[in-house]
Design goal:
8 helices; elongated; six-stranded mixed β-sheet; Helix Hairpins; alpha+beta
């Protein structure tokens, strides 16, 4: 089984990033280091093509010429425009994105339907499967919140080194990073998956194209959302004999049909009948490791949490699985069912709105 990532989006939605860990794969050894990722933010959308005055299909030469023209026009030292400084910074930000094949390709994935100034939420997993240079753990830039919401943590640099008495230039290759999605079951069992990544580059005409590569990746048992897997030597090649950079894969879970995940804990909404909730019962409950029996206490209410200790995502301190009862009513689709509901109405004298004073 493998994963190939499609980066087309129908509509904007919330992007939620987490503060989680890094998983370093060095042979069979797992080491953890905690890093902070950029919180999701809500900002105004910026149309970088409109700011630069170029078409979306412009090549790099056209973008470069447009930038030089606008930079001269709005440079604060020479421009007489009242908003020169603001426009100069805006043009610089747009050029920072459009001149870089990686940033531009990722920005283009947002689509052409956004309008300048529109409230912007980065689409969920908008950059999934895209391979970027940099380790993905940088800080905020000097650009707008819109820029930082997309790129603020995704670009870093390799390190240069010239040994004492040496004339040879040595530079370690840049790290790369990408966000990938896996199934929740992979975190429970561990797995080896083929993961396809896309990396933007320029063709001979100066237009941005993407190339794809596929890697076999070992998903360690117990990995959680937001952690990063380090693949040594899978970044950019080094110079002057220096080692290649590394590739960091940030883990996200595919949406699951019945489970929700919070850290190492897993949540399940469990339908129960009115008589099971009222009288108590023992029912079968699905878990990622197979079904188990769960005791429903008498007078159980919708929305409560029943904990199955240690049945969340495995870890040194494993998470828990929380079962959330949801009482469901049988349909009144027969005369006998309707009569039963009428009898309950007459005999139980139950008013669920009494605490509201009505």
């Amino acid at each position: 089984m493998g994963y190939v990532f499609d980066l087309s989006f129908a509509s904007p939605a919330d992007l939620i990033n987490r503060i989680d860990g890094v998983v370093y794969l060095t042979g069979s050894e797992l080491q953890f280091q905690y890093i902070q990722s950029l919180d999701g933010v809500r900002v105004d959308y910026k149309d970088y093509y409109k700011i630069m005055g170029v078409e979306r299909g412009a090549n790099q030469d056209e973008i470069r010429r447009a930038y030089k023209k606008l930079a001269r026009k709005y440079h604060p030292d020479v421009s007489k425009e009242p908003d020169a400084e603001v426009r100069f910074k805006e043009v610089g930000e747009a050029y920072e994105v459009l001149k870089d094949p990686e940033k531009r390709a990722a920005y283009d994935q947002l689509g052409a339907d956004w309008k300048a100034g529109q409230d912007f939420h980065p689409p969920p997993d908008w950059d999934t499967g895209f391979e970027f240079r940099g380790g993905g753990a940088g800080g905020a830039s000097d650009f707008s919140d819109f820029f930082d919401s997309l790129f603020g943590q995704q670009f870093g640099a390799g390190s240069a080194h010239r040994g004492r008495g040496q004339t040879e230039f040595r530079q370690r290759g840049e790290d790369h990073h990408a966000k990938v999605q896996i199934d929740l079951e992979d975190a429970y069992q561990g797995a080896t998956r083929s993961i396809s990544l896309r990396a933007p580059e320029l063709d001979n005409t100066g237009h941005v194209v993407t190339k794809q590569r596929t890697l076999k990746v070992k998903i360690p048992k117990g990995v959680k959302q937001g952690q990063r897997i380090r693949l040594a030597g899978q970044g950019s090649p080094g110079m002057g004999g220096a080692p290649a950079g590394d590739l960091y894969l940030e883990i996200e879970f595919n949406p699951h049909s019945i489970y929700r995940v919070d850290g190492h804990d897993v949540y399940l909404d469990l339908p129960v009948t009115p008589w099971e909730a009222a009288l108590g019962a023992t029912v079968k409950v699905p878990t990622p490791n197979g079904p188990v029996d769960l005791k429903i206490a008498p007078n159980t209410r919708t929305g409560g949490k029943l904990r199955l200790k240690g049945r969340g995502i495995p870890a040194a301190s494993p998470g828990d699985l929380y079962v959330v009862p949801q009482i469901t009513l049988p349909p009144a689709d027969s005369e006998a069912a309707k009569e039963l509901y009428r009898k309950m109405e007459q005999e139980l004298k139950y008013n669920p709105r009494s605490h509201l004073g009505v």
